[in-house]
């Protein structure tokens, strides 16, 4: 049996390989999520000069919806995705890097906002990724999450659980519980809403130290 660390490493290699294949068509594949991304980002408040971390940035579709004047740190495990994200926008100062979202090369409390869109259901260790997001986000920062989660208080439908092993190989897990991921992370959910025919969740989170 592989150890936890080697299992994560194998998952990362698989993710890097398949997303290298997906890179040329990724924008087309995620076009149905464009409105949801825009809605998620519109729920955040930005000031000129803010530093925005985009976790699992892909070729950078989130950049299309960020206001001009913010700085962007875009990280992804797949070099082909990072190359596309680095040159996507002419209205943002983009710093793009190849990085594991579970071990971000970013200082504590150093970003004003984090976008985690369609990434937590893909990574090998989503709990660790949430912990990293909490670590790098400033105490008064904000986090946008867009992904497929089971309904609160459930384990997902029988069908969803039955097809999950195949879905994990092809694209992502279908059985993540957002509340369980957030619990103990140092973050709190301020808002959540369903999107895309109720199959996806848009959530806004903040560090627990933030008042309000």
Describe the structure.
- The chain has 212 residues and is α/β, with parallel strands linked by helices.
- It has one domain (4-207): Vaccinia Virus protein VP39 (Rossmann fold, 3-Layer(aba) Sandwich), CATH 3.40.50.
- The protein has helices at 4-22, 26-29, 34-42, 79-86, 126-136, 158-170, 178-182; strands spanning 51-55, 71-76, 93-98, 111-117, 137-147, 187-195, 200-207.
- It has a seven-stranded mixed sheet.
- The chain is globular.
- The mean pLDDT is 89.
Q: Identify the overall geometry.
A: globular
CATH superfamily assignment? Vaccinia Virus protein VP39
Number of domains: 1
Instruction: Give the structural class.
Output: alpha/beta
Helix residue percentage: 25-40%
Pfam families: Methyltransf_11
GO molecular function: S-adenosylmethionine-dependent methyltransferase activity
Keywords: Methyltransferase, Transferase
GO biological process, one term: methylation
């Amino acid at each position: 049996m592989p150890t936890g660390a080697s299992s994560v490493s194998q998952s990362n290699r698989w993710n890097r390989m398949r997303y290298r294949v997906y890179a040329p068509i990724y924008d087309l594949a995620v076009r149905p999520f464009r409105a949801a991304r825009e809605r998620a980002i519109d729920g955040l408040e930005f000031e000129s000069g803010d530093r925005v971390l985009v976790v699992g940035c892909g070729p950078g579709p989130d950049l299309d919806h960020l206001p001009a004047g913010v700085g962007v740190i875009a990280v992804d495990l797949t070099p082909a995705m990072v190359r596309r994200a680095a040159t996507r926008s002419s209205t943002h100062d983009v710093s793009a890097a190849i990085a594991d979202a579970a071990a971000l090369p970013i200082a504590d409390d150093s970003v004003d906002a984090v976008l985690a869109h369609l990434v937590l259901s893909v990574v090998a260790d989503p709990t660790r990724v949430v912990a990293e997001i909490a670590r790098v986000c400033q105490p008064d920062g904000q986090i946008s999450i867009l992904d497929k989660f089971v309904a609160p208080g459930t384990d997902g439908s029988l069908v969803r659980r039955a097809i999950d092993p195949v879905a994990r190989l092809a694209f992502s897990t279908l059985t993540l519980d957002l509340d369980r991921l957030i619990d103990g992370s140092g973050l709190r959910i301020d808002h959540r809403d369903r999107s895309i025919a109720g199959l996806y969740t848009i959530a806004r989170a903040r560090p627990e130290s933030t008042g309000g």
